[in-house]
Amino acid sequence: MIFKRFREDIDSYKARDPAARSALEIVLCYPGFHALWFYRLSRWLWRRKLRLVARFVSHIGRMLTAIEIHPGAQIGRRFVIDHGAGVVIGETSVIGDDVTLYHGVTLGGIAPAVDSGSQVGVKRHPTIMNGAIIGSGAAVLGPVTVGEGARVGANSVVTKDVPPSVTAVGIPAQVVMPRDKRKAREFQPYGTPADGCPDPVLQTIESLRHQVAALVERVEELESKPDAAQPTAPAKRDRQAV
Questions:
Q1: Mean per-residue pLDDT over the chain, rounded
Q2: Smallest Cα–Cα separation from 84: which of 130, 144, 38?
Q3: What number of CA atoms fall less than 13 Å from residue 115's CA on the CB side?
Q4: How far apart are CA 106 and CA 137, in angstroms?
């Protein structure tokens, strides 16, 4: 079972990273792959209530890979961290199958509103559904859900749920384009697509610019009309008495 999972992880990296030339290169040179197996060991310890040992193993993995994965997080199969450095995955994060994260991604928590002040057992971190892609530098904060097959653009900040099969970008992240549901399960590299993904702020500015241009054109058209088109003064009705 462990060897099957090991091979499955290697195949996932080969399928999603065009720079990967061989299985040996992935095993020796990919920090995301190393961090994943440190996580699997620490998770095994965590589930057996060896919490301090699990955190220590996780800490060693963080020192060696610059990737921090809490052993309490739940991670599915064929998980890929590409490039890796600076990734943080919090304790109550839940990650489905075939998810891809790029460097600098934070799956962070927010302080819940609990009267006792205790946060043990409280869901504080995101849920990332199957096949989602989180672009480099993005932060997904709080107990939100990124839907199946969704993409989060680079440096975006997600504080609300992202629907399945869409692309979300910006601060805060907004849905800017749907994805073809037929292709949603196909891996499309990087969280920021090069297929015409619009910036919502630039879209608004461009719309306002077109409206102002239309108004200026209309004003110039009205000003260019001859003076004869203007209404004339009424004729005098009173006549001088004889």
A1: 83
A2: 38
A3: 0
A4: 7
The helix (run of H) or strand (run of E) holding residue 59 is helix 51-65
Establish if 234 belongs to a structural domain.
no
Give, for 216, the enclosing helix (H) or strand (E).
helix 200-223
Q: Backbone phi, then psi, for 236, in 5-degree steps?
A: -70, 130
Average pLDDT over residues 86-111: 92
Rounded Cα distance between 195 and 46, Å, is 42
Task: Please compute the mean of the pLDDT values over residues 8-24 and round it to a whole number.
Answer: 89
Number of domains in the chain: 1
Strands across the sheet with 174-178, in order?
80-82, 100-102, 133-134, 151-152, 166-169, 174-178
Q: What percentage of residues in the chain have a pLDDT greater than 70?
A: 76
Q: Which residues pair with 101 in a beta bridge?
A: 81, 134
Instruction: Please confirm, yes or no, whether 59 is among the known catalytic residues.
Output: no
Q: Is 28 helix (H, G, I), strand (E, B) or coil?
A: helix
Separation CA 45–CA 149 (nearest Å): 31
- Residue 94 domain-assigned (yes or no): yes
Tell me the CATH number at 111.
Answer: 2.160.10.10
198: nearest Cα among 166, 221, 230, 241: 166
Q: Which of 34, 59, 83, 103 is catalytic?
A: 103
